[in-house]
Amino acid sequence: MRKRYTSKTRFCAMVCAVMLALSAAGCSQEDSGAESVSAEKSSVLSSSAEIDNVTYDTSVEAADLDTGYDNAFSTKISFTDDGAAIDGEGASADGTAVTVTAEGTYLLSGSCKNGRIIVDAGKDTEVKLVLDGLDLTCADNAAITALSGKKLTLTLADGSVNSLTDGAEYSLSDEDSNVDAALFSKADLTLNGSGSLTVKGNYKHGIVTKDELVIADGTITVDAASTGITGKDSVKILGGEITVTAGTNGIKSSNSEDGSLGFISVSGGRITVRSGGDGLQAETSLLIDGGEFDITTGGGSADAEPHQNDMGGFGGNNNKMNGGGMRGGFDRSDGNGSGAADNAAQGGFADRRGQRPEMQNGEQPQMPDGQQPNEQAVTSEDSSDSTSAKALKAGKAVSISGGSFVIDSADDSIHSDGTVTISGGSLTAASGDDGIHADDALLINGGETEITKSYEGLEAKTITISEGTTKVTASDDGVNASAGSSENSFGGFGGTSEGVFLKITGGTLYVNASGDGLDSNGEFRMEGGTVYVSGPVNAGNGALDYGEGCKATVTGGTLIACGAVGMEEGFDGSDSTQYSFLHNLSSTVSGGTELTVSDSSGSVLLSFTPEKDFQSVVFTAPALAGGETYTVTAGSVSETVTLGTDSMATSNSTLSGMGGGRGRGKIF
What we know:
Strand content: 35-45%
Helix content: under 10%
Distance between the termini: 51 Å
Shape: elongated
Radius of gyration: 30 Å
Number of strands: 49
Number of domains: 2
């Protein structure tokens, strides 16, 4: 096992790296392609990340950054269509097939329509291939194959243009039976240098290593029939300009046998991915603290499979059950929920501009076609046969602390089977499904996040927003805290999941949702921050929604949530320590109309312009006081609200239960 640079040896590692660079720089420019190791790159030598008690070694070796070589001690190999000329030791040629059998540095150049390089130098060897104007195609195998060794380094000489291409069909022996990429290595693989490399994977993949992959620099373009780039144990990207076009996954790490491997870490570079499947996919964790990303998957959000409307329209346009069974009457071409007007013809509720669903002696409204509230309809998205086309995907955790992202994904833009943590960076994403999804916890601790298009904006079992600016546009729920189908339990006509909560302690959140604005199948806790919700126009959803038998409490922060009347909910007054009110206006107000809340002296506490029609308003702010009167004004509508003194929550809603909305026909 090779020596790693840990935090205890960071200073020594940096010194060694600089010494290597200075030593290489001592050669003439003609003899060496050496570049100095910057302080920024030196800092990554000893890096690591710990998530859920698992430490991921994201460090690299000084050799990964060393682009120097000495012409005098390097073997030179020049290809033509007729053969390969070798000047030096450690390599032999059989026609246009070159085999490297010794540790050392090899300078490669020339062009060949059907040649290959085989590196088989032994188990513990390190081989450096310097590509300086190499255009190599192999008709029936990989262009470069490393069958053995500790490390293979491809250094792209300064100013050089290089390309590797394989054939659409391979002729394999027992020795190379698992070779499946134009550039294939069984050893650790490093790409560095400031030149360019184009890899065309016609057979299956572009670049594959069965161990660790480090990309330190270079302009690297990969076009592959299947996966673009794979580092089985890990992929570590420090810099460079990387462009991947892939039939399936863009960049992947696939080790599922060791929990500390199978990760992708990115600290810099410019990465562009166009993939039919996932963009960046890590078996364990995806760790990003820098870089620029432009990712399109599955043709983008416009090519996403439509969400089915099998329920026939109950609850307006977006109700669902158990993660996808109960979706009513939604035309996903209309993100503003205007399809609600068609719901009456489908057995659901029309958008009746402020009218509540008809209730008979307090009983819930009749479900369409005699279906019972807890019956689950099946949608196409539940099918295991569907192709995953997520942009950023991990089996355990996605952690983003820096970088900039532009994403257009047919599936989730960010997805983790465990946790998602965003503490920095800038993200703009359009999704054909969830904007950000975590099976367990989603934590937004900073950064700028904007979901411009999604089915559900933010979804996880527990969601905590503490810092940053987050903007969400969703055709269903804007923010949805849910345990998923396996843990849902239903009491009567409302959905509740154990251990589920939505908590907002800081930051600024904007939500434009055609389903529920803020939806928790458990508790909702408002403790700080500022929240603006432009909620549903249909009577089957609410600007706020929380679990049956659970509470929405407010102890701090400012929130304004506007939506339709019919399933409206406000905060619970018994456990809250900050005043709030739920007020249904006497008539519906058109979207785009400014709404203000003023105190008795005329001072404006808050102004907000909902993007869609609204009639119900939920408001809380630290300035509210019991016994005081406040004026809600929106266009020609101006009404007063006087807060009570026996409860922290005031409501004029006629729906039964806590906060004015607990007797609801909401499943999810």
